[in-house]
From TrEMBL:
Residues 181-228 form the Zinc knuckle CX2CX4HX4C domain. Transmembrane segments: none annotated. It comes from Daucus carota subsp. sativus. It comes from the Eukaryota. Coiled coil: none annotated. Residues 42-122 form the DUF4283 domain. This is CCHC-type domain-containing protein.
C-alpha cells in the first residue's frame, strides 16, 4: 500500500510539470555545423509535384533520369513527406542544365525544383516557383536593354536571366528572358509600357513549354474543368 501511495504522489507531482517549448533560451551556433554526412548541398535540389496525387517514385525516377541524361549521374531519394524528393547531382553543369531546360513534368504533373540550401526544414519547405522562359513580343526597338528586360521579368515574376542573343542585330521577332513565376498566382499575358511623356504601348507574352494551366483563373497545375473558381457563384 505504501508503494502504491508513493507512486500516486509521484504521478501527481509530474502532472504539475510543464515544458516551455517556446521559451527564449535555445541553441545558437557560432559557426556552421560540420557536414559529417559528406553531402555537397550545392549539388542538391529538392523537388515537389504541383499535385496531391501519389507519384510512383520508381517510375518517376527512371523517367526523369532518362530525359535529363546527366553526364556525371544523378541520385534521387524519397523523403518522409508526400511527393517531396531529394535530387543529388555529381556535377554542377548537370544540375544547372536541368534547371535551365525546365519546366519538367511527369504524368502531366508539374515538377517544381528548388536548390537545397542545407538549413531548410523539409516539414516547412514550400516550393512555389516555376523556372520558365518567357518570350516578349511587340517590344519597341528603343526599349531593348537589359534594364528593361529585368523590369519586365520582375513584373511577371522574378527575373533570372536573359538570352544573350536578345541584343544581337537590329530586329528580332521576340526577346527571351528566364523568370521564376509563383504557381499560386495567375499568369500574366501582357503588360503596358511607355516612356515618360509618351503613349502607353502593350507588349505580349508567351511562355515556352508551359505546363497545363487553367484558362479560367490563369493558374498553373489544373485545367478549367477542375477549377475551384468555377464553382464560386460570385464569379
Amino acid at each position: 500500500m505504501a508503494n502504491a501511495s508513493m507512486g500516486k504522489k509521484v504521478t501527481q507531482e509530474y502532472a504539475k510539470l510543464t515544458i516551455d517549448e517556446e521559451g527564449e533560451e535555445g541553441l545558437i551556433l557560432e559557426e556552421p555545423p560540420a557536414n559529417h554526412v559528406g553531402v555537397d548541398y550545392s549539388l542538391c535540389l529538392v523537388g515537389s509535384f504541383l499535385s496531391d496525387r501519389k507519384v510512383n517514385f520508381s517510375a518517376m525516377k527512371d523517367t526523369l533520369a532518362s530525359i535529363w541524361r546527366p553526364v556525371k549521374g544523378v541520385y534521387m531519394e524519397e523523403t518522409s513527406y508526400p511527393n517531396l524528393f531529394i535530387i543529388k547531382f555529381f556535377h554542377k553543369l548537370d544540375m544547372q542544365r536541368v534547371l535551365d531546360d525546365g519546366p519538367w513534368t511527369f504524368n502531366q504533373q508539374v515538377f517544381l525544383l528548388k536548390k537545397l540550401e542545407g538549413e531548410e526544414q523539409l516539414s516547412e519547405l514550400k516550393i512555389s516557383e516555376l523556372f520558365i522562359w518567357l518570350q516578349i513580343y511587340d517590344l519597341p526597338i528603343g526599349f531593348h536593354s537589359e534594364v528593361i528586360f529585368k523590369s519586365i521579368g520582375n513584373y511577371v515574376g522574378k527575373f533570372l536571366s536573359s538570352d544573350p542573343k536578345n541584343l544581337n542585330g537590329i530586329w528580332r521577332n521576340y526577346q527571351r528572358i528566364k523568370v521564376a513565376i509563383d504557381v499560386n498566382k495567375p499568369l500574366k499575358s501582357k503588360m503596358r509600357i511607355k516612356r515618360a511623356g509618351g503613349d502607353w504601348l502593350w507588349i505580349n507574352f508567351k511562355y515556352e513549354r508551359l505546363p497545363s494551366f487553367c484558362f479560367f483563373c490563369g493558374v498553373i497545375g489544373h485545367s478549367e474543368k477542375f477549377c475551384e473558381s468555377l464553382f464560386d457563384e460570385k464569379k
